[in-house]
Hints:
Helix content is 36%, strand content 17%. It has 488 residues and is α/β, with parallel strands linked by helices.
Amino acid sequence: MRVLFLAAEAAPLIKVGGLGDVAGSLPKALRELDPQLELRLVIPFHGVLREQELQLEKVSLFRLNTPGKTFNVEIYMTQTSLGEIYLVGGDGIDITAPVYQSDPALDAEKYCYFSLASLEFCVQEQWPPDIVHANDWHTAFALKALRDRFPEHIQFECTKGVLTIHNLPYQGQGAQGVLPQFGLSAAEDSRLPEWSRGFPLSLGLECADRITTVSPHYAEEIQSPEFGAGLDGYFRGLRPAVKGVLNGIDHDEWNPALDKEVKQPFSSRNIGQRAENKRELQNELGFAANNAIPLIAMVGRVDVQKGVDIAVAALERSVHLPWRAVILGTGDPELEELLSAFAARHAQQVRCILSYDRSLAHRIYAGADMILIPSRYEPCGLTQLIGMRYGCIPVATAVGGLVDTITDERVYPGRGTGFLADHQNAEGFSRVLHHALGAFGERGTWRKIQARAMRRDNSWSRSAKEYLELYTSLQPQTNAGKTGEEKN
Ligand code: ADP
């Protein structure tokens, strides 16, 4: 089976958020699971990638004709620790632009070009894909192009489309102006709200043979007005329903026993050794070493979604308690300002690092005691998976994939791997934070929570199998490949 896997970012080359982790590690897991699988992972040759010293092989040069313009396309291939990655360069990629701009209209041409050039690459190479797997709005254009531009093309005769939604509110609003110049039309599916039909995500929703999202709980939630971003009615009526396949993490990349960024390797069998990493981290942050004071972390995009303000308010409420906090992230300037002011108010207790620092993130997971994830919504979330793997216990809101991956110690005493707040607000979150701080004080209990969290299997093993089964079920030829659902 041949799979064309399209994404805007992929680790280890370029990672802005969780999509980069997933697009890097899922293809690796799929290839390991089925060595016969021919999977081509393709991303744009972003300007920032040109600053890296990549070993590049130029694999193809061709023209892409569109009603608006003819583009010269260059395709490169590079080997990475997670396998080979194809890069689409050429006229359609503005190398001065970042991976994502604040307005999808500014990114529209790049991603539409990228999607079409990736399909044209298959034509040029005579490499007919069985599956085109698009991720989020940036690559959803490809599924529409299969229908509008290549309706009867021999290369795509048997091609099926899969669309994975990693973050539903991001639908590419404003990018619709680019469609005519690439020969694409808006979605016509009357079940989609009219206002959404030009948005790239809707093109993918209309044309995908199967739609997935990144956790079972989020797949349910998006059918409600609170989480559906205006498409809840559409999702409620969809058959087959959106399938939730839980994200995993690469257990080689995130391995506390082998992590090169970490001073003292450790595992669930010798969690005590972890204290050395906490000591190092405290030193690095300018805190006097004290293992008895909980070190609370937050790592992620500084965004309303991530509840940065909720974390600040909850920590303010507990400021009389002994704790220290380290916050690592970049994003919304106003929220960054809020964080800086918070750190300045509590200079003895809080450190705030407003940058993207991959290496520091590893040291934080390995040394901090708990990680706060007060998200307002969370399609899956990776920081809780990484945190658990490193014995850094998640304290999170009970939304999306956080519900699927964290067992709440308050609800299941003696079985928990973290703590979940029922309400996405400061009051609810501060209650659960208090509880977690209390549990931290009971050393034996805390150790057991850490050991359970570290032993949880958050790897891709199960989910990669689910994706493979999904791909197989879409293949026309075999009955064996069909799911029960489709047979009936
Ligand atoms: P998102 O909604 O951004 O995709 P996830 O929790 O799914 O959130 O994934 C976030 C990923 O990005 C994690 O691997 C996390 O460690 C990493 N990350 C986020 N912000 C930073 C940062 N400032 N420095 C280093 N790593 C970061």
